[in-house]
Amino acid sequence: MQQLESKSDEELEAETRYKAAAQAILGYRAAERYDAKAARAHFQKALAASRGAQERAGIRKMADASLALAERRADDLKRATERLGVEAPTNRQLLSLRFVGLVAPPASAGILARIRGIVIAIVLVVGILAIGFGIVYGVAQIFGGMSIDLSIFWGLVLVAIVIGVLAFFGRRRQKRAKASRAEQLASGSR
Asked: From CA 77, how far away is CA 114, in angstroms rounded?
């Protein structure tokens, strides 16, 4: 399984010897991209290719957890990961998954949920821009004032800089986590 995890999606699609495991990995990767339809299809192929009852049970547990993630169901994800026997997501991770489910509901959600997500996203963008404007305008008032037009521009610049810095440090943190996970997998396979 660890050897298969390092393969690309194309290599896993072409896998014939360990087809069930390869399809399960593809299903998990699709779930990480929040693509529930593709994840479900891969897990169905994995179940069809599985050989024994024990292997099918493991794939079903993995499918339950992955589909709960793809469909942004935080409570189901927590229960499924506990049944799977892996570390459950933290409360902060579950809260962020719930928030993502509000802003970007799964494809199976109704039209009202999608409209709600768009409205929440617009309100968030306007709120963040208003905070940037408020900070710039407030600091400018301390030093003698600035026109509203310039404050709006510098507020946009401030927001862009903050988002850029957060993205930069977030990517670094993500790379470190990915490297430590790969290291754990490498040490676990020995």
From this structure: 22
Confidence of residue 109 (pLDDT cuts 50, 70, 90): confident
Task: Give the tens place of pLDDT for each residue, 113-135.
Answer: 889 999 999 999 999 999 999 99
Q: How confident is the model at residue 97 (pLDDT cuts 50, 70, 90)?
A: confident
Amino acid at 170: G
Q: Rounded CA gap, 159 and 127, in Å?
A: 11
34: helix, coil or strand? coil
For residue 50, CA distances in Å to 15, 24, 37, 46, 53 come to 13, 10, 20, 6, 8
104, HSE (Cβ side, Cα atoms, 13 Å): 10
Domain range list for the chain: 1-90, 110-190
Q: How much is the pLDDT for 124?
A: 94
